[in-house]
Write a structure and sequence with these properties.
The chain is an alpha/beta fold and about 475 residues long. It is built from 15 helices and 22 strands. The strands form six sheets. The chain has a seven-stranded mixed sheet with strand order 14-15-16-13-12-18-19, with helices on both faces. Helix 2 (about 70-85) packs antiparallel against helix 5 and helix 3 crosses helix 4 (about 100-120). It comes from Rehaibacterium terrae.
């Protein structure tokens, strides 16, 4: 892999403003999911390294917190400019370690960097309040102050955006941060740390610990009393365990967890727009996103026309190495991920589903590729209707009425994202308000941006990322009563 700035390929821990090896001297391999080749060997942190990073963050906190919001925002803007200057190298790193097509990787770098600029500007808009006092000799103030040291655990499917979406608001609020990037995709995270170092972030403000032993680092993050906030993106099962572990020190938590997104197409929908939206939503990152359409509900009256249009476009999608021209779908992240998709499709077929397109692995391309797939006759009891597929599979269900569609869409413990296509204004309002989801796309399937609050309801999480609400997750509200003023 050729980078314009080769020193962005960092492989050590970033603690207290310096690159260093893990205390135990161990390393782990990062591979290319398209070829299986080794990309790099990265420092393998243990519990002691995580504790060092927390100590560095705690030591840096008073100085960082004392800077003005404008000073913190200025440093974040320097970071934003450096990320922008090195966007192509970051995209190449991402495609190599994560597998998504290069065009998608470029788009993610731009999207992720949007959070840095947004929160650099939001730093100056953390407002408190003066509250009418109960007596004339006192004043009542509500101050907003940084929560303290933040620990962040990020996922492999968006190696840049999931990090900037957490780091940028935390730093803007005046917190210091320790990040555990994913074992599968640590290289983009380390490159971001190098750019933060070049931007002039004070030592200890941002720390990165890479590891192959996530439970050991997670235990330190959740039990160390110096950490006052945990931000996690990942599975609901792991999120529940982390939340329980944080209870011992009563940490604040933000959890962006799993989803089971419905995608509803009503009989008055613009079918061409709905098909385009579904393909964009489902096949981005080979279906490996928490807001991918997981259950596609199509009304009886337009079902056959919709499926015909859909299959024509899915059949034209190209699968391959993300660096190859024209590729729309890259590999799944691991062989285990491919095996999960195979299991879910086999379970559905055994229970009566019919493969309309695809439905097989693509060993001629490599061990982690799976064909874009369309399944018909899917019912809500099948495993792929209950679990996140995390692969390029569209499972189709029919429905008769609006009430039925809403009831089936909401019949899940998850509540992250939902989508629907319909033309009537009254229906659009009814359905948008009736869906029990934190994110709803009405006639739009690409809905994430830095200005909007991202987060789930029910078992899909706690808190919001992005928007003015995102920075609030890293602030405490302090009440001050000024007396003796009469």
């Amino acid at each position: 892999m050729t980078l314009d700035a080769p020193d962005l390929l960092q492989t050590r821990l970033f603690i207290d403003g310096a690159w260093r090896d893990a205390r135990a001297g161990k390393r782990f391999r990062v591979d290319d999911p398209a070829s299986g080749d080794t990309v790099a060997e990265v420092a393998d942190a243990g519990a002691a390294d995580a504790a060092d990073a927390i100590a560095a963050a705690e030591h840096a906190l008073p100085g960082w917190r004392a800077l003005s919001a404008t000073e913190r925002g200025t440093l974040l803007l320097r970071w934003w400019r450096l990320i922008d200057e090195h966007a192509e190298d970051l995209a190449r790193l991402m495609t190599r370690e994560q597998g998504k097509p290069l065009a998608e990787a470029r788009a993610e770098v731009s999207y992720g960097n949007g959070f840095v600029r947004w929160f650099a500007e939001e730093a100056r808009r953390v407002y408190g309040d003066i509250i009418p006092a109960p007596a004339g000799d006192r004043r009542v103030l509500a101050l907003k102050q940084p929560v303290g040291v933040v620990a962040a655990i990020t996922p492999w499917n968006f190696p840049v955006a999931m990090i900037t979406r957490k780091i940028a608001p935390a730093l803007a609020a005046g917190c210091t941060v320790v990040v555990k990037p994913p074992e599968l995709t640590p290289l983009c995270a380390l490159a971001l740390a190098e750019l933060a170092r070049r931007a002039g972030f004070p030592a200890g403000v941002l720390n990165m610990v890479t590891t192959s032993d996530a439970p050991a680092i997670g235990e330190v993050f959740t039990t160390d009393p110096r950490v006052r906030k945990l931000s996690f993106t990942g599975s609901t099962a792991v999120g529940k365990r982390l939340m329980a572990a944080c209870a011992g020190t009563v940490k604040k938590v933000s959890l962006e967890l799993g989803g089971n997104a419905p995608f509803i197409v009503f009989d008055d929908a613009d079918l061409d727009a709905a098909v385009r939206g579904l393909i964009a939503c489902k096949f981005r990152n080979a279906g490996q996103t928490c807001i991918s359409a997981n259950r596609v509900l199509v009304q009886d009256g337009i079902y056959d026309r919709f499926v015909a249009l859909l299959c024509d476009q899915v059949a034209a999608l190209t699968v391959g190495n993300g660096f190859d021209e024209g590729v729309r779908i890259g590999p799944l992240i691991t062989e285990r991920a491919r095996e999960k998709v195979e299991r879910l499709v086999a379970d559905a077929v055994a229970k009566g589903a019919r493969i309309r397109l695809g439905g097989r692995a693509l060993p001629e391309l490599g061990t982690r590729f799976y064909a874009p797939t369309v399944l018909e006759n899917v019912d809500p009891a099948m495993a792929l209707s209950c679990e996140e597929i995390f692969g390029p599979v569209i499972p189709l269900q029919r429905f008769a009425s609006e009430d039925e569609a809403i009831a089936r869409a909401n019949a899940t413990p998850y509540g992250l994202a939902a989508y629907f296509y319909a033309q009537g204004q009254a229906r659009t309002w009814r359905v948008a308000e009736a869906l029990d989801y934190g994110l709803v796309g009405a006639n739009e399937a690409v809905i994430s941006n830095e200005m909007a609050p991202f987060g789930g309801m029910k078992e899909s999480g706690i808190g919001r990322e992005g928007s003015k609400y995102g920075i609030a997750e890293f602030l405490e509200i302090k009440y001050v009563c000024l007396g003796g003023l009469g």
